[in-house]
Structures are given as structure tokens and as C-alpha cells.
Design goal:
The complex is a heterodimer of chains A (about 800) and B (about 375).
Chain A (H helix, E strand, L loop, with lengths): L3 H10 L7 H7 L2 E5 L4 H14 L3 E4 L21 E7 L2 E10 L4 H11 L4 E3 L4 H17 L5 H13 L6 H8 L5 H8 L13 H17 L5 H21 L4 E6 L3 H5 L4 H8 L7 E7 L2 H4 L12 H9 L4 H15 L6 H17 L7 H12 L5 H13 L13 H12 L9 E6 L3 H15 L5 E3 L10 E6 L4 H9 L6 H15 L3 H13 L6 H14 L3 H20 L5 H21 L5 H20 L12 H14 L5 H13 L5 H11 L6 H12 L5 H7 L1 H13 L2 H16 L3 H13 L22 H15 L8 H12 L1
Helix pairs in contact in A: 1-9, 3-4, 3-14, 5-6, 7-8, 10-12, 14-18, 15-16, 15-18, 16-17, 20-22, 22-23, 22-24, 23-24, 23-25, 24-26, 25-26, 25-27, 26-28, 27-29, 28-29, 29-30, 29-31, 30-33, 31-34, 32-33, 32-35, 36-37
Chain B lengths: L5 H11 L11 H4 L1 H10 L12 H9 L1 E2 L5 E2 L7 H12 L3 E6 L5 H13 L5 E3 L11 E3 L1 H7 L6 E3 L1 H8 L2 E5 L6 H12 L2 E4 L4 E4 L5 E7 L10 H4 L2 E5 L6 H18 L9 H16 L18 H18 L6 H12 L5 H14 L6 H11 L1
Parallel strand pairs in B: 3-10, 3-11, 4-7, 7-10
Antiparallel strand pairs in B: 1-2, 5-6, 8-9
Helix pairs in contact in B: 4-5, 4-6, 11-12, 11-13, 12-13, 12-14, 13-14, 14-16, 15-16
Classes of the chains: A alpha/beta (about 800), B alpha/beta (about 375).
Chain lengths: ~800, ~375
């Protein structure tokens, strides 16, 4: 219902224009109000500049950038790039002015360079705007905390030096359009069908409309806009004096056009600019990406479809046909059969759809609908691919090497100085003691740089053990690392922010679960608390969707380790604990089915997972108060019992599960003997039985000692082994050999002696045979004498025992 | 997505189709004759050849709206506007339209109303089954005549498709993927050459302007008789989605359950609504692979878990409650039904289901009973 308002008020706005539309083109400076990142605007700007041929081009942007303009003409400069301003003493305070191929500002710069016309940026200097931002930040911080959201928004706006509202969006909405760029296309581009017509006409129309809007909304409620506009007016005045009224062209946000024609006095403008805070600011070009253009940053609001805009700008004619051909090409690359007939039908559908929707030309919405119906069989999956690869696009800008250093380099230099870590080409080893503050900071820096792909330090090999407070690094600074730093400048202006951004994007793009867990570990090492939540989220998502228990089992130990690391470095790990507990739950559910029907190799692999998961679950906090980890150990024991009892599970895993239960004291020795009896009963194929033995007592985990101390188990095994038929014996021999050869020589010898002595000599009543030189059996009285000291050593209180001990114990302790 | 139910349609029968009197379910063009007439009167936009309405008016007929003269057009399809626009536009570009979707997403309903609005006739229908013969798509013979007079145009029995071609109307094919592949392929000539040869007579029937075809097919049946790519190319595909919001789905389920329950004389009380909401939540979460709060991802089981299945789970639960319980729908009554709907593949789906109840259901407030019931039936 607001639709007609601006249109109706347009005539009233006309007086704002100096002299009225007809004369404006002649005498007044050329004011080109644009939509930032609008391909339509960009084309119109080029046409207008070509037609008017100004002697100077003024562009909305920080004046400190004037010196950098020449670089825009460099061969190696490829948009999207951004003009980056940052405070020298605080690189974290920065603002970007991103420019794409299809940005009107970029087109204007290129036009000026090609025609050897000077370019001047006329916005408020970055020195002021950065300082203003800082001031505003402090002010708002002083205010109530509850306005946190608002503050963020505000800060974004300020950093961007952008607009509060998208004025074209307001007009487009008023006209019933959802996409401002479409409205611009429909209204501005198609309003000049005869090319011979005045190329300045659209800008006059826009200026009129903006005048009407400004009457309605005032300055958009932003005092800083007024200050900026005052600065622009002063600059414009200076340029007009120098080059004359006709020689000046201004490219700025359409919103500011009415303000530039407003009749104010120089003194009033100066007064507005008086007493502005100032910081030392530096500017440089940094490479930008389409993906970052799609985010809300830079000039006002971000744009959703940079790829599509780029296409609109680059396509010489028939944009819809060319676009759909591009889409077909992408789909063919992805092995979908898309013929030319599909393209033809899609074009027809898109155009008819546009007609049904009452639009002069098919836009992104219509073409995507047509692609879905014609080429993708109604599915949204390939459409997502198109959105990602074409509509947004993977374009990465390039900046010549001659561009000034990025703030990231500055931040790094500062850190290197304060941490006394010199970048030296000579390789050297550094040992860090993580209990010292400086060393922790050094370690953090090196880990963060590694995350950013700046391989200055490599963790020294062999010292990967996690429990220590020591860390060894090999440092070596090579010249190409400067290039790496420059590249990493895309991610942020400080080492911390860049590493955080990098880790977040890594989490989003990681495909394998183990990748994300490794990333989580690195985030903890590099102490990136802000990156941890997104990484954890990605981790939880991957874990939920991964159907392979082995992957989950691989991920869990790293997480458990990270938890311990977190404790060492006093990082918050609550989220990590939650994710780890969830992962463990999933393993508990998925493990039993995954263990069925495995071959020998698969079983051996799974057994390793079983071991590592068992260790990891032991490391997890038992109950973290969320109810999540509640009785995890109990559930895990249940899973182990299921595994030990289930016949379809491979022998090695069954044996291992029984052993783990036994070690934890969750399986009575009688039960263990029963399991072994079942596994080694005559009905079981000998190879299965041998595998069970390997699982139960195999490995270096003290399996031999178990046999030495429990003669019943040894007897069972001995009985089974002698009953194996000679034919099968050769089958099981390699397995058994592998099991027993892993034992320590002493254990092997004892076992051999036990077996030689023969079974049944004493039964369980006589646990250990007498060693040579010792009497048989146990002298209980002498053995008891050891107990008090043992208790003292272990710090336990003797509970029950013969009355005799009670009498003696206190004296022993006091002594 | 809500499908105005048959029961409502029958209620309007008395007023809008008095000629048929006791017809259980009148055709769309009869049931909504008034709306179509009002639309045609108000419609001043360009109409493709032999279309009763302009594409814009057809879209309005389906999506509902108010005409300048105050006539209220009821929405026939509640769902994304985009889908209806693409469907109508497809028909206008003389490409055939394929409506895909899981059961219960109003494919047939939409196709009927499209045909009614475009051609004023939704009766040219071929029902696809595994036994659909070629005659149903091309033409058959009146054998008495054929034997008596030999092959002639009079002895020919045209199929609905043939009639639509000669009269410039919209034909409909239901369950296209159920039709055997060789019969499907006889549509290729019809759709690409717009002609149907009759070699016995040495003649052909050429389609006149306005002819088009709307087919419906079940997403999950794709494997039954997958369309050949030659045929597929002739269709623009529109996928009808499942209900977008939980509220809409709960509404559909409870309405439908109420109707079925009345038919089966089951006592359905509003106290069952919580349980219905729970069933819908479980179905939606598993279907979407995401919990309702959007925080946790889940694996999706192999079953469709469509709204139609949720309806049958609740109905089944109601029957259990009525005959063996205290008449109130309780978690235990629906748990078994849900298990049956979710676990289609005993190995993979069971793990997914267990993960779901252990990681999501167990920790949800107020779901304790349900968790216990699920554990009970799953164990």
C-alpha cells in the first residue's frame, strides 16, 4: 500500500535537483546514483560516463584509497577484490569496500583508468570512520548489555561504512517486487528501449525517486550519514572548482544523490565535520570471493546471487539463454544427461513463467524454477549444486604483489615481537613449556598459523604424547610465507580472527567425520573458542549422519583426547563433552550390528576400534550433569556383554569383549570361564576358537599374566588345544603363534613351565607353582606382615583381616 | 497441501450438481462450476487455444483469491504458489506435466483441478496399473463392428488420450510409473509428434491446439517402471512437497483421522491430539533428518513416512485404544505402529530407530511414557 507514495511525491522532489532534469545533464555535475553491486547500475554507469566524458570521477569510498587506484588497472588485479582499511595500531579494527566485476564503482574506476581521468574517493576518510566506529562501540558497550543484537548490527553497518536501508529495495518493494535488482532491471534497463536515448535518463529518474524517499525517511535516522554526505559535498565543491561543473562525475549510492544536490553552505558542512575522532589508518587491496560478497558485508547489504549478477553483467545479449546453457554445462559435468532440447524447453518455460507472473523478462527465480522442472526432474538436490556453483560461484579475486601489506602481516609482526619469536630462515628447534604463559602464547600462535596454512612451525616428531606439558616445534621462516600470509588475509585482519574464520569454514566444508574431529582438536590447541561451537555443530551433524560405526569409533578417541587437552589448557569443553557423549551413545547403538558377519581382517580392525572406544569411554566424564553421559560406562558394559554373548559376532571380538569386561571387574571369573568354555567347546570350529583366544588373551595387554594367574582358564585352553585334531592344528597354529609370541619372554617361560607341570596338580587352590629355591605354597603369616605397608603405600585403610593384623597395623602405620 | 476432503465435496453435491442427484463425488468442474464461471467472466487475459481460462486465472482457481466482483475462489491447493505457477505454465507451453510426490500429497487432486480449469473436463482419465493395455493409451476396437464391417473409423474405440488430442482437451494419466514400459512408450509419439497413427486405417489423429497431458507418479515407485529418458524428456516435472509446517500436518492428520474414525465408529476425543502431534513430530523429524528445534541431525529411514502413513498409524492406535484400552489414545497404542512404519529394512532402519529413541526421545521433556513404550516394542 506504500506503493504509490514515492511515485506520487516525485514531482515535489524535483526542485531538489539543480535546475531540473532537462538542464541537469548540461550544467550540473553528473550525479550517478547507483545500487552497489548492481550489474544494471554498472552498465548504466559505463554508458553514462561514455556519453558525458567527465574530466574527473568521484567515487563513494575512503579518500586514502586514492593512491591505490592505479593498482586497479594492474594486469594481475582481478575482481572480486576489496579495499581494506584498518587502524594501524589495531588491525582488528577494519572496514572493507568490496568490489566485483559488476560493481558500478569498479566499472567507474576502470573507465577512468582507461581514459586517463583522475579518480577520487570522496567518502569520509577511513581514519575518521574507523575512529567513529570505535567510539560508537565504546558508547554502546557502556549502555545496557541487553542491546547486544542491535549493537552487532550497528557495528556491521559502521564497519561497512554502508547504508542503513537499501533504498532501491524500498522502491522495489513499493512497486511490488521482491528482488531490487529485478526492479532495477525492469524499470531502469527496460525503460530505455531506444539505445539512442539519453543514457543519463535512468539516473535522473532514480534521483527523483530518491529525493522522494529522502523526504519521507529523512537521513534514515543516521547522524553519521549526514557527516559523510557533508564530506562528499565539500569534496564535490572542490572538484567543481578545479574541473568545472561539466567535468565532474560522481558515482555514489543512490541514497546520497539528493544530499549532494542539497543547498548548504560550505561553513555548515565544515561545522559538521569538526572535531571528528581520528585514528591512523592504512588501506590496501585484498582479494575477495563471491561467497563473501554473498554475506552481509561491505557496501551496505550483501547480495545473494553474485554469480547471477556477474553473468548478467558479462553476458552480451540473451542472458536467459546463456545462463541456462551454463547450467546445462554444469549438470553435464556432474554426469546428468541434459540435452539441448532441455535447454530449449527450459528457456520456453522460464519465459512463459515470467509472462504469467507479469514480468518483462525472466529473472533468476523463473530460470531456477524452469531448471528444476525441466532439467532436474523436480529435484532440489542438483538445484543446490547450481545455487552453490553458479548462482553464488567460486570466483576468487587476485591482487598484485605490489599492493601494500595486509593487516594480518602487521598483526603477526606485532605478535612475533611481543613473544620474542623471530622469523629466521635458519631452522631451529624450540621447546615450549606450556605451564609458562609466554610459551603457551607461542604455542597458540604457532597452532593458529598452522591452521591458516602458514607453515612456519612444524610440531617436532616423536613428541606427540598428550599428557606432557612440553611441546617441541621446528621453526623455519621462508620468504614465500609472506605470500601465504597475504593469502590468509582473506580470512581476517588478525591471526586470531583469521584462524577462527578459517576453522569455521573448514568445519563447514569437511566431508569426513575424522576431518572434523581433527579440526576440533586443532581448535583447542590453537585456542579458538569462537570457532569451537560451529566445529562442534558440524561434528554432531556428521556423527549423526555417518552410518559407519568404524568412523565414529575413529572419531571418539580424538575427542576424548581433546577433552583432556582442554583440561590442561583450561579451555571450556562442555560442548565437546556433550558431543563426545552423543558419539558414544551412537556407537553403543550401532556397534553390535556392525560386529556381525565380519571376516578375519574386518574383525581385527573392529577389535582395534573396540579397544580404542573402550579406552575413550573410560576417559569421558562419567556424568556431566546433563543426563547425557549418565551411566555411559554401564551402557557400554551392556554392549560388551551383548558382543561377548552373541554367536554371530566374530570370535576375536567376542573374546576381546569378554576380556574387557573381566578387566573392568564387570564379569565374574566364573562367567569368564564359562564364556571360554563355550567358545572352546568341541562344536566350535577351531579357527573360531583360536580367534577367540587371540581376542581374549592376545596382544601386549597382560593376557599372558592372566593365564599365569588363573589356572582354570589355562587348563581350559590346554584341554582345548590338546583336543584339536591334527588336521585343524595346522590351521590354528599361525593364529596361536601370533597370540603367544607377543608375550614377554618371562611370561612365556612361566606358562611353559605351568603347562609342563601338567593340569590338575593343585587346581585353583594352588595358584603359582613354587619357584626354584622357594618352598611350596604360601606362608600366610609372613605374607600378612606385608599388608600394612602395602596399605600405607596405596593410601587405603585395612578393612577386614585377622585380629592379629589389627593389633599390629597401627604400630606399623605410626612408625 | 491440504486436500479438501471428499466428505466436504459430497456435501456440495446437493447444491452444485443437482442433475446427478446422489453422485457420491462430483467432478471438479461440476463441484466448482460457479467459481469457474465467475473466473471466466472476470478473466480478460490472453488464453491459449481452447483454454477455458487464462493461465493466470487457472493459477487463481487453484490457489484461491477474491475476484474484482467479490466472488471468493476457495483454495484448492494449499502450498507454495511457485509450484502451481510452474505447473500451469508448463501446460501453456504445450509440454506435458508430470506431478511427482509421495502418497498423500494431492497429486491426483491437483491434476483433476488443473484439467477442470484448463479444459472444463477432468474425465479423460487413464488409470495406470501394472495391467494397463496399450488400448487404454492409444485406441481399441469395437469387435462386433470390426467383424461386421471391417476396419473403419466407426469401429475404432478411442482412448481418453485420443479423444483429448482430437478435441484439444487435457488428458490425465494416473500412476504413470505403474504402467508397463512398452505401454508408456506409446506416449512418446503422442507427446513429441502430437500425432497418433492408426496404421490399420492408414490414417492418423493429429492433436489440435489445447491438447496436453498431466501425469501423476509416486516418487517412491520410480523403480517400478522407471520412465525411459526419451519419455521423461517430454515432461516437465513438478514435485508436490509434504506439508511445510508441523501445524498444517497435524491439522491434516487429525481431520482425516476424525473422518476415518467416524466411519469405523471409533471414539476420537480431543485428548488424542497430543499423541497425534507426537506421531507427526516423530515422522517429520525422521523424514527431514533433523529434529524439530533444528539442532540435531538424524539419519532418515528407508520408509516414506508420509502424512498418509501417519494417518494410518494414528487410526490403528485409536482402534487399539478403543477395543483393548480405555478409549484414550496413549503412547503405547501408537508406538508399535510407528515402529512398523519406520523400520522397513530390519537391519539399517532398526539402528536408525534406536539411535533416534536413545538420542532424541529419551531426553525430551514429557516424552518419558513414549520413550518407555518405544523401548518396550523395540526390544
Amino acid at each position: 500500500m506504500t506503493a504509490p507514495t514515492p511515485v506520487r511525491t516525485a514531482p515535489r522532489a524535483a526542485p531538489h535537483l539543480a535546475g531540473g532534469p532537462a538542464e541537469a545533464g548540461r550544467r550540473a555535475p553528473l550525479l550517478l546514483g547507483v545500487r552497489h553491486h548492481g550489474p544494471g547500475s554498472a552498465r548504466a554507469v559505463r554508458a553514462a560516463l561514455d556519453a558525458a566524458g567527465p574530466r574527473v570521477v568521484l567515487i563513494e569510498g575512503p579518500p586514502e584509497g586514492d593512491a591505490l587506484v592505479a593498482l586497479a588497472g594492474d594486469e594481475a588485479m582481478r575482481p572480486p577484490v576489496a579495499l581494506l582499511a584498518h587502524a594501524v595500531d589495531d588491525p582488528g579494527r577494519a572496514a572493507f569496500w568490496p568490489l566485483a566485476e559488476f560493481s558500478p564503482e569498479w566499472v567507474a574506476i576502470r573507465w577512468a583508468l582507461a581514459h586517463a581521468v583522475p579518480v577520487r574517493f570522496i567518502d569520509l576518510p577511513a581514519a575518521n570512520s574507523l575512529a567513529q566506529a570505535a567510539e560508537a562501540e565504546e558508547k554502546t558497550e557502556a549502555k545496557a548489555e541487553e542491546k547486544a543484537e542491535e549493537r552487532d548490527e550497528e557495528r556491521d553497518e559502521e564497519e561497512a561504512g554502508g547504508l542503513r536501508i537499501d533504498p532501491l529495495a524500498v522502491l522495489a518493494e513499493a512497486a511490488g517486487y521482491d528482488d531490487p535488482e529485478r526492479w532495477w532491471e525492469d524499470v531502469v534497463e527496460h525503460r530505455e528501449p531506444g539505445r539512442a536515448e539519453d543514457p543519463l535518463a535512468p539516473f535522473e529518474a532514480v534521483a527523483e525517486a530518491m529525493g522522494a524517499l529522502r523526504e519521507e525517511y529523512g537521513a534514515g535516522g543516521d547522524h553519521r550519514d549526514l557527516v559523510r554526505e557533508a564530506h562528499m559535498r565539500i569534496q564535490l565543491r572542490a572538484a567543481r572548482k578545479e574541473f568545472g561543473d561539466e567535468g565532474v562525475a560522481v558515482v555514489c549510492g543512490a541514497w546520497h544523490v539528493p544530499a549532494l544536490t542539497a543547498k548548504t553552505t560550505l561553513a555548515a558542512d565544515r561545522a559538521l565535520l569538526k572535531g571528528l575522532p581520528k585514528v591512523k589508518a592504512e588501506l590496501t587491496w585484498v582479494p575477495w570471493t563471491h561467497r563473501r560478497l554473498a554475506r552481509h558485508s561491505g557496501y551496505g547489504a550483501g547480495i545473494d546471487s553474485p554469480g547471477w549478477y556477474g553473468h548478467l553483467f558479462a553476458a552480451p545479449d540473451r542472458p536467459v539463454e546463456r545462463w541456462l546453457t551454463k547450467v546445462a554445462g554444469l549438470l553435464r559435468e556432474e554426469d546428468r544427461t541434459v540435452s539441448s532440447a532441455h535447454v530449449i524447453e527450459a528457456v520456453r518455460l522460464a519465459e512463459t513463467l515470467a509472462a504469467v507472473r507479469g514480468r518483462p523478462l525472466a529473472g533468476l527465480g523463473e530460470t531456477m524454477d524452469a531448471v528444476r522442472a525441466v532439467m532436474c526432474e523436480g529435484s532440489d538436490v542438483p538445484l543446490g549444486l547450481i545455487r552453490d556453483r553458479l548462482v553464488v560461484g567460486d570466483v576468487l579475486g587476485e591482487v598484485p604483489d605490489t599492493a601494500p601489506a595486509v593487516p594480518l602481516q602487521r598483526d603477526l609482526t606485532r605478535l612475533q615481537k611481543s613473544l620474542r619469536l623471530k622469523p629466521e630462515a635458519l631452522e631451529r628447534q624450540v621447546d615450549l613449556d606450556l605451564r609458562k604463559e609466554t610459551d603457551t602464547a607461542r604455542s597458540r600462535l604457532l597452532h593458529r598459523l598452522r591452521l591458516l596454512g602458514i607453515g612456519w612451525g612444524e610440531p617436532a616428531a616423536g613428541r606427540g604424547s598428550t599428557g606432557t606439558f612440553r611441546e617441541s616445534w621446528r621453526l623455519r621462516w621462508e620468504p614465500e610465507l609472506y605470500v601465504r600470509v597475504a593469502e590468509a588475509g582473506v580470512w581476517g585482519t588478525t591471526v586470531l580472527s583469521a584462524a577462527t574464520a578459517r576453522a569455521e569454514s573448514g568445519a563447514a566444508s569437511a566431508t569426513a567425520l575424522a576431518e572434523v574431529t581433527a579440526l576440533a582438536e586443532r581448535c583447542l590447541l590453537a585456542e579458538l573458542p569462537d570457532a569451537l561451537p560451529p566445529v562442534m555443530r558440524a561434528l554432531a551433524d556428521r556423527a549423526a549422519l555417518d552410518t559407519d560405526v568404524a568412523h565414529l569409533a575413529q572419531a571418539l578417541p580424538a575427542l576424548a583426547r581433546s577433552l583432556r587437552y582442554g583440561d590442561v589448557r583450561s579451555t571450556g569443553t562442555a560442548a565437546l563433552g556433550d558431543v563426545a557423549a552423543g558419539l558414544a551413545e551412537r556407537i553403543c547403538v550401532g556397534l553390535p550390528p556392525a560386529c556381525a558377519g565380519l571376516d578375519a581382517d574386518g574383525a581385527a580392525g573392529m577389535r582395534k576400534h573396540l579397544d580404542s572406544v573402550h579406552t575413550a569411554i573410560g576417559l569421558l566424564p562419567e556424568n556431566d550433569g546433563h543426563g547425557r553421559g549418565a551411566d555411559l560406562a554401564g551402557r557400554w558394559a551392556g554392549v560388551l556383554r551383548t558382543l561377548a554373548e552373541r554367536d554371530t559376532v566374530a570370535g576375536e571380538i567376542r573374546g576381546r569383549a569378554a576380556r574387557l569386561l573381566l578387566d573392568d571387574g564387570r564379569l565374574a571369573e566364573d562367567d569368564a570361564a564359562r564364556f571360554m568354555g563355550l567358545a572352546l567347546s568341541p562344536g566350535t570350529p577351531p579357527t573360531d576358537a583360536a580367534a577367540w583366544i587371540e581376542g581374549f588373551v592376545g596382544g601386549a595387554s597382560g593376557g599372558g599374566l592372566l593365564l599365569v594367574h588363573d589356572e582354570r582358564l589355562l587348563g581350559l585352553m590346554d584341554g582345548w588345544l590338546t583336543a584339536v585334531s591334527p588336521g585343524s592344528f595346522t590351521d590354528v597354529l599361525p593364529l596361536l603363534r601370533r597370540t603367544f609370541s607377543a608375550y614377554e619372554p618371562g611370561v612365556r617361560r612361566t606358562l611353559g613351565e605351568l603347562v609342563r607341570r601338567g593340569p590338575g596338580a593343585g587346581g585353583p587352590a594352588e595358584p603359582v607353582a613354587a619357584a626354584p629355591g622357594f618352598g611350596p605354597g604360601l606362608d600366610e603369616a609372613r605374607a600378612d606382615a606385608v599388608l600394612p605397608v602395602l596399605h600405607l603405600l596405596l593410601g587405603t585403610v585395612p578393612e577386614t583381616g585377622p585380629a592379629l593384623d589389627h593389633a599390629q597395623a597401627p604400630t606399623e602405620v605410626t612408625r | 497441501m491440504t486436500v479438501p476432503e471428499n466428505a466436504e465435496a459430497t456435501e456440495t453435491t446437493a447444491t452444485s450438481a443437482p442433475a446427478d442427484g446422489e453422485v457420491l463425488r462430483p467432478h471438479a468442474e461440476d463441484a466448482f462450476a460457479d467459481e469457474l464461471k465467475a473466473l471466466a467472466a472476470a478473466d480478460d487475459r490472453q488464453r491459449p487455444a481452447r483454454w477455458r481460462l487464462s493461465p493466470w486465472a487457472v493459477a487463481t482457481y487453484l490457489l484461491g483469491g477474491t475476484l474484482p466482483d467479490g466472488t471468493v475462489i476457495t483454495p484448492k491447493y494449499v502450498g507454495p504458489r511457485r509450484i502451481v505457477e510452474v505447473a500451469v505454465t508448463t501446460l501453456a507451453t504445450d509440454r506435458a506435466l508430470l506431478l511427482l510426490g509421495v502418497p498423500g500429497t494431492a497429486k491426483t487432486w491437483v491434476s483433476e483441478h488443473l484439467a477442470a480449469a484448463v479444459s472444463g473436463d477432468s474425465t479423460l482419465l487413464v488409470q495406470g496399473t501394472a495391467g494397463t493395455p496399450e488400448e487404454a493409451v492409444r485406441y481399441g476396437w469395437n469387435y462386433a463392428r470390426l467383424l461386421a464391417h471391417g476396419p473403419s473409423r466407426e469401429a475404432l474405440v478411442p482412448s481418453p488420450v485420443m479423444r483429448a488430442m482430437s478435441e484439444g482437451l487435457t488428458a490425465r494419466v494416473e500412476e504413470l510409473t505403474r504402467i508397463p514400459a512398452d505401454v508408456q512408450d506409446s506416449l512418446i509419439t503422442v507427446l513429441s509428434e502430437k500425432t497418433l497413427p492408426v496404421p490399420e486405417l492408414g490414417q492418423e489423429v493429429q492433436a489440435v491446439g489445447g491438447f496436453n497431458l498431466i501425469a501423476t507418479a509416486n516418487d517412491r515407485d520410480r523403480g517400478v517402471n522407471e520412465l525411459s529418458s526419451a519419455l521423461r524428456r517430454r515432461f516437465n516435472t513438478v514435485v508436490l512437497p509434504l506439508p511445510a509446517t508441523p501445524e498444517a500436518e497435524v491439522d491434516i492428520v487429525s481431520r482425516r483421522v476424525g473422518q476415518i474414525g467416524r466411519a469405523l465408529d471409533l471414539p476420537a476425543g480431543p485428548e488424542g491430539l497430543d499423541e497425534i502431534r507426537r506421531v507427526v513430530t516423530v515422522f517429520r523429524e525422521l523424514r527431514d533428518g533433523l529434529t524439530a528445534d533444528g539442532r540435531t541431525k538424524l539419519k532418515s529411514p528407508s520408509g516414506t513416512l508420509s502424512t498418509a502413513e501417519a494417518i494410518s498409524v494414528v487410526t490403528h492406535g485409536l482402534a487399539l485404544a478403543a477395543h483393548f484400552g480405555d478409549g484414550v489414545l496413549r503412547p503405547g497404542d501408537v508406538a508399535a505402529g510407528i515402529l512398523g512404519a519406520v523400520v522397513r529394512d530390519p537391519a539399517a532402519d532398526r539402528v536408525i530407530w534406536q539411535e533416534y529413541i536413545e538420542t532424541v526421545v529419551r531426553e525430551r521433556d514429557g516424552w518419558k511414557d513414549f520413550y518407555r513404550a518405544c523401548r518396550e516394542v523395540t526390544a
